[in-house]
Amino acid sequence: MQISVGTPEFVRYRAAQLYDVAFGSKLALAVPDEKQRIDMLAKGFVLEHSIAAITNGELVGLAGFPTPDGSLTSGIGYRSLLSDFGFLGGNRAALVFSVYDRESRKGELLMDGIVVDASCRGQGIGTQLFSSLIKLAIERGYSTIRLDVIDTNPAARRLYERLGFVATKTERFEFLRWLLGFGASTTMIYSLQSSDP
């Protein structure tokens, strides 16, 4: 398996498909049609803001991360949403995406999503992606990595805890569960002060 910072262009559409498998239920509030959603992701991904796991020429894992210059999803902007989905659909998508927007703090690398192909789970790919992300964060001078995990994904939370992430805060919004598909989000932090990638 090859791990690379910056996902190769030739797997762009597959990256969008994988991302949609992991986050499609959240994104469907903004863009209900699966093909339109995947096309939007494929067109809008800024692949340099990601780490890819590739086996035999196939993308099997992806981790996104933001920098001051952008993020994996930063190519999906208000104008492109209006252009792709019209006035009503574009504004609805922009409004929903704004709910998911998060700001990073100084010295903190904020995760922008991680996904491993379902047929390849349990093979250590997620762990290797995180190891590469930790190495990248240390090289770039970050002191922590932050991510948010939703209450409907306990397997992901267990993985993050095994990797050394510590839960610091849980926000509950049960009143939005009917809309979002989840009712709580937990912020988890990984300290790079004593890390060994």
List the helices and strands and how they pair.
Blueprint: E1 2-5, H1 12-27, H2 34-44, E2 50-55, E3 58-64, H3 78-100, E4 108-110, E5 114-116, H4 125-139, E6 144-150, H5 154-163, E7 166-172, H6 177-180, E8 184-191
Parallel strand pairs: 4-6
Antiparallel strand pairs: 1-2, 2-3, 3-5, 6-8, 7-8
Helix pairs in contact: 1-2
In short:
Its EC number is 2.3.1.57. The protein has helices at 12-27, 34-44, 78-100, 125-139, 154-163, 177-180; strands at 2-5, 50-55, 58-64, 108-110, 114-116, 144-150, 166-172, 184-191.
Walk me through what this model shows.
This protein is α+β, with helices and mostly antiparallel strands and 197 residues long. The chain has a single domain, classed as Aminopeptidase (3-Layer(aba) Sandwich). It has 6 helices and 8 strands. It has helices at 12-27, 34-44, 78-100, 125-139, 154-163, 177-180, and strands spanning 2-5, 50-55, 58-64, 108-110, 114-116, 144-150, 166-172, 184-191. The strands form 2 sheets. It has a 4-stranded antiparallel beta sheet, sandwiched between helices. Strand 2 (50-55) and strand 3 form a beta hairpin. Helix 1 (12-27) crosses helix 2 (34-44). It is globular, with a radius of gyration of 16 Å. The two termini are 17 Å apart.
